[in-house]
TrEMBL record:
It comes from the Bacteria. Keywords: Membrane, Transmembrane, Transmembrane helix. This is Uncharacterized protein. The chain crosses the membrane at residues 17-37, 49-69, 81-99, 111-129.
Length: 137
């Protein structure tokens, strides 16, 4: 099965997941904090909310880079932590989406759902690899 093969490869080099997550967080911060702000009328979410949402992935970038660059024996625990942080970001994003439901456009809802879908998949993957790593160490 493809998913199991990818998980096995990630187990052999789990730090790459932090790099992937960090680059994704950087992209998310740019999209939410710059692109969506520039086109806020098309998405329907106020700029101050978008700036607040962009702060989360910026923090994740620093956490991911720390985990990627630092030598430690807690990779599995840190992978589970970033997975949980990503899930919390999903909940916060959805909370803001419902708070602004009267102004959020179809494009805004689409962006939120696509970002959440990507983060759910990534979080499940990170958590699975993190769980396997903590079992073997």
């Amino acid at each position: 099965m493809l998913f199991q093969h990818i998980i096995k490869k990630a187990e052999n080099n789990p730090k790459k997941l932090f790099l992937i997550d960090g680059l994704g967080a950087l992209l998310s911060a740019f999209l939410v904090g710059f692109v969506l702000v520039q086109f806020k009328d098309y998405f329907g979410m106020p700029a101050n909310t978008l700036y607040l949402l962009a702060a989360f992935p910026i923090v994740f970038v620093f956490f991911d880079m720390y985990c990627y660059l630092k030598k430690h024996k807690k990779t599995g625990i840190f992978l589970k932590m970033i997975a949980l942080l990503n899930l919390q970001y999903c909940m916060v994003s959805m909370g803001f989406a419902f708070y602004h439901k009267d102004t959020l456009t179809t494009l805004g809802w689409t962006y939120i759902f696509v970002e959440i879908l990507i983060l759910l998949l990534l979080s499940a993957f990170e958590f699975t690899v993190g769980k396997r790593l903590t079992r073997t160490s």
